Sequence to fold (753 residues):
Amino acid sequence: MELQLLRPPSISYNCSPKLTLRYRKKKLNPGIPSKFFTISANKVSRLVISSKNASETDTAVVVDKPPQLPPRFEVFSGYPTPFGATWRDGGVNFAVFSSNATSATLCLISLTDLPEKRVTEQISLSPQTNRTGDVWHVFLKGDFQDMVYGYCFDGSFSPEDGLYFDSSKILLDPYAKAVVSRGEYGALGPGEDCWPQMAGLVPCTTDEFDWEGDLPLKFPQRNLVIYEMHVRGFTKHESSNSKFSGTYLGVVEKLDYLKKLGVNCIELMPCHEFNELEYYRMNFWGYSTINYFSPMARYSFSGIANYGLGAVNEFKHLVREAHKRGIEVIMDVVFNHSAEGNENGPVLSFRGLDNSAFYMVAPKGEFYNYSGCGNTFNCNHPIVRQFILDCLRYWVTEMHIDGFRFDLASIMTRSSSLWDAVNVYGSAVEGETLTTGTPLSAPPLIDMISNDPVLHGVKLIAEAWDCGGLYQVGMFPHWGIWSEWNGKYRDVVRQFIKGTDGFSGAFAGCLCGSPDSYQEGGRKPWNSINFVCAHDGFTLADLVTYNNKHNLANGEDNKDGENHNNSWNCGQGVPMFYMGDEYGHTKGGNNNTYCHDNFINYFRWDKMEEASSDFFRFCRLMTQFRHECESLGLNDFPTAERLQWHGHAPGMPDWSETSRFVAFTLIDSVKGELYIAFNTSHVAVTVTLPERPGYRWEPLVDTGKTAPFDFFSDDTPDREIAIRQYAHFLDDNLYPMLSYSSVILLLSPDETM
Fold:
């Protein structure tokens, strides 16, 4: 039997009664087997099916002839740059990289066809006219109304060679500026599918946003107070009373709170598009990126409305409104791995485009796993490092982002798959024997980012380690501009505060900006991002409450999360802003809450109100004090002209193994002179203060006192009465300190003389 269609064979037609003609791969419907996708079109009104053999005359069944419709698109060869979908010259240019594919198809999908995994229109790309080098491209003019797009690529499916081409998969363009898929957070797709089909936004001339003259704030980094936060978790709890809970707009509603707290920089945990329901298990944190150019659509109030452009504009609105309040916005970006996992993971984008280019693979196709998440982004491959640079530029120029914190940034310093000097530098280097994943002293990607004119002046913060054992705190290739999450600071402060032997000297170094880690390399104190608590570990309250982690609720038999917490239930806390620490948020001892979309990770606005006159007040006043002190935001490391160390007696610091006391005086051009001391012993002490003739020390902070007398602000009730209670000590130049407490005293003129 011979099948004849009266329209071009790029579309399958629905006949009445219910009948779909599905065409075999590599014939009438190349690249899209019917078991995965169908190609929809208007109903056929005439179909001819003929049957004959050598001894029979022709017979035919005639059905109404389909209407002759004009083509929806004019198709041209297109341009190889820029990558992605770009509006230009009255149409849209599509360009995508794939070096190993044998064929490529642009798939245009209507919003009604997307949930059904149907392709509405497909454009086959010719290797002769639609390919330049390793870039496939096409330019279309026509009606893109209600259309999103993706690609199909064919080629070798050979995992042992690192190739995963599968023409049954519609792939997301890595350069898509918005992702359209599920619109509701936590809701599965059609048929309870946790990986429903995704597609990219087709741009148009109306994609505009009113920035109202917004410009970068460009705060000196030494003046920042960074607040790490989760967009959904910040306002999702019912006590937030937010009209837009759990969204970018919800954060906007609370920006004035952050301003009051003294925060001038928010660091957003991952806001790139990710799947919170991957593998039917909640991924709350978002460290599993699908697309790096797109803001997470389900963090927006509008979801996928307007083809995902609503999410883009809501994110821009958040940045603009933060800037109006003097708050910079830093993004936590995850260029160390993607959501596609190892060889058993889904084929969503990079893997189907060119797996061996985008991921580190061994000679037999195995995935390197320096990320601990199944795959490792091939960051120093030429096409990948260009992709990362393009992405960072986009978020700075189009989204007005002020900086980036790079998750597991040490992976970005490792050599790529098939590394060789010719590949990178254009010529061989004598004696070079680098293998895949070898740390590089001058990684091309870091070099490109550091010297890029568009990225000049933005904050660049490295989490300077990875899961492959590479630890580069104080040694990350920096070009004089990179900062680091100072994990050494975190560990030393925790050890000293809980009273561990041998840490007084190291703690003193931390207070000076960690010169042992950063001074020799030519960096400054502000290159050290000092933190004690962050999202992946105990909260500040749990740090001083629990001896061990309590992660059974994660469903991993308490085997996940860090065991080396350096915690002790001593009741003492150090001010550090991770979302919720300012009021003493607890996660019940769970130090790895990546999978909880509930009160464990939600900011508790009711608890904050309860602490408004207690710990929150203390944190707010300490932040204000930090902004007011010139000496706490120095552009260089302090010297003996400004800083003097003390012990229980002036000028006699104790750096012995058993020391539990560190004190110093600091000259400040605004506050005069400060005396700051930490007693982490279980024994109270009375310290002798440095003599300053004509002046008198007065208490400002004493964490051993109950609120509001832990911080003597101008509005502290009965302030003068409370201060006079110290008079008999201060008259003798003494001050009593309780165990596990810290104090700040200010030098004032002695009015009694």
Observations:
- The mean pLDDT is 86.
- The radius of gyration is 31 Å.
